[in-house]
Specification:
alpha/beta, 7 strands, abc type-2 transporter like fold, two-stranded antiparallel sheet
């Protein structure tokens, strides 16, 4: 060692300055690649993020898409048709005024009582079946009970029995709490103020009413009308938030990384063993991916179960307020698991195909696009988005979220459509899986041929022999035929 130390120390230093003349070609190549890659990333980032900014750009202008039925049953049918209605006309007048106001508001639509067969419960059914996001219902006896209360001094009069405000936060808690409820709260506050003033003036002008009678019916005098807020399917418990919002979106990033690709390629690269037949490799890899998604989705669903998200409550009537009903009773967890399995397969198979086609360099851009477009279509209903975003109805995450809410909160069922769209995504990705594998093989073979073209030989590489066969530098080696990474 001592005799070799001086020789080692006398060896010339191998590294050179970045500005060394010998690196001119390298500097040019790296600079050109940096400019190209940075330009592609900037343009891609701009286009992808514009999708998110765009979906909320005109949200206030599109608030009328959040339809609210205003239905006046007041004095419309016997035995209350003999009473001149007061509450109903006040509600419809305020709705018309709100529609004509320049202040952004949800879409109040005045509907005739005859459309619902003069049955207020059918308005609840309309909200439950997604025909409207909310509803304001004036009960048939609203004015009759109010007048009777002040005439006889009814101390038990309940002002909340005149008007009902129907919502369903389980359909979309963000839209409900951010836009629908604030608008309805303003509406009901204005209604109580305006009707209260007009009602008080009428009572003061009525000489037939005594002070004792009015004092006894204090709640009928003020406020007279206090709309009752009813949430048919309240959003809850809080532990359900990840399951129906952004929980699965975290898995998209994980699914985008091909954890199994490196190990699977050992089946077709002969390293001490014969390569697996190519079609067997493709089929085995597809089956292994499906099996992985099956168990990953089970673990994902078990997290909700561990944190006591209910999965065994019985379903409820569409017209009743129900806390945490489940659409399929004790079978809800199984349906939830299958839905998330298909969703994970639809999302994950797309990532696998793209990773094989575009390669690891650009998989980050794909993940940004895939994660962003899926999450925004899951969180923001296409109803309030510009028409360009109608493609959101076909995106897999939209149907995973919609189906999950239907299962957990017993909402209007479109589970057949949800499963059908996810099945279609899995089927299309399965069909594309085979050509994507071929593209990956072609890229690998192209890289090997490009490298061997510059060499004075090429390799015959088999599991039982590896031989360097001479050739002229610059001459391409023979093309590989059947099999993977094998020479002629």
């Amino acid at each position: 060692m001592k005799s070799r130390a001086p020789q080692h120390e006398s060896l010339p230093h191998q590294s050179v300055s970045w500005w060394d003349p010998g690196l001119a070609t390298l500097r040019k190549h790296i600079s050109v690649m940096w400019c190209r890659n940075t330009f592609i990333i900037c343009v891609s980032m701009f286009l992808i993020l514009c999708l998110y900014w765009g979906i909320v750009f005109r949200i206030e202008e599109n608030l009328p898409s959040l339809v609210c039925f205003v239905v006046d049953f007041d004095g419309q049918a016997a035995p209350y048709d003999a009473v001149t209605p007061l509450v109903g006309p006040a509600v419809t007048a305020l709705a018309n005024e709100t529609l004509n106001s320049p202040v952004p508001s949800i879409g109040y639509q005045i509907r005739a009582a005859a459309e619902f067969d003069f049955d207020p419960l059918k308005v609840r059914e309309a909200v439950y079946h997604f025909k409207a996001w909310s509803a304001v219902v004036v009960n048939p006896n609203a004015t009759a009970l109010l007048r009777a209360a002040v005439e006889v001094g009814n101390a038990s009069y309940d002002p909340t029995g005149a008007v009902q405000v129907i919502t369903m936060s389980g359909r979309d808690s963000f839209m409900t709490y951010s836009y629908i409820l604030p608008s309805l709260t303003t509406f009901t506050s204005d209604l109580m103020t305006r009707f209260g003033e007009a009602w008080a003036a009428m009572l003061m002008a009525d000489d037939t009413l005594t002070k004792e009678t009015l004092r006894a019916a204090a709640s009928a005098v003020n406020p007279g009308v206090s709309p009752l807020m009813l949430d048919l399917r309240p959003f809850g418990p809080p532990a359900a938030i990840p399951a129906v919002t952004f929980g699965l979106s975290f898995l998209i990033a994980h699914l985008g990384f091909t954890y199994y690709l490196a190990d699977d390629r050992k089946c077709i690269v002969p390293e001490g063993h014969p390569p697996v037949h190519y079609w067997h490799y493709v089929i085995r890899r597809w089956i292994s991916l499906m099996a992985a998604y099956f168990f990953l989705s089970l673990v994902y669903c078990l997290i909700s179960l561990v944190f006591q998200v209910p999965f065994s409550n019985p379903p409820a009537s569409p017209v009743e307020v129900a806390e945490n009903p489940n659409a399929y009773g004790r079978a809800s967890f199984i349906v939830f698991w299958l839905l998330n399995f298909l969703g994970m397969a639809a999302l994950g198979m797309a990532c696998e195909n793209m990773a094989m086609v575009i390669g690891p360099r650009w998989v980050g851009l794909w993940l940004t696009f895939w994660t962003l477009t899926n999450t925004l279509t899951g969180f923001w209903p296409p109803d309030i988005a510009p028409g360009f975003y109608r493609w959101a109805y076909a995106w897999p995450y939209h149907h995973v979220i919609e189906g999950s809410r239907q299962i957990l909160f017993d909402l209007h069922s479109r589970i057949g459509l949800n499963f059908g769209v996810l099945f279609a995504w899995v089927a299309v990705n399965t069909v594309l899986f085979v050509p994507a594998c071929y593209v990956l093989r072609w890229k690998d073979e192209k890289e090997i041929r490009s490298r061997e073209t510059k060499m004075p030989h090429f390799h015959l590489h088999r599991y039982d022999v590896e031989t360097a066969i001479p050739k002229q530098p610059g001459v391409a080696p023979p093309r590989r035929k059947r099999g993977f990474l094998r020479a002629l």
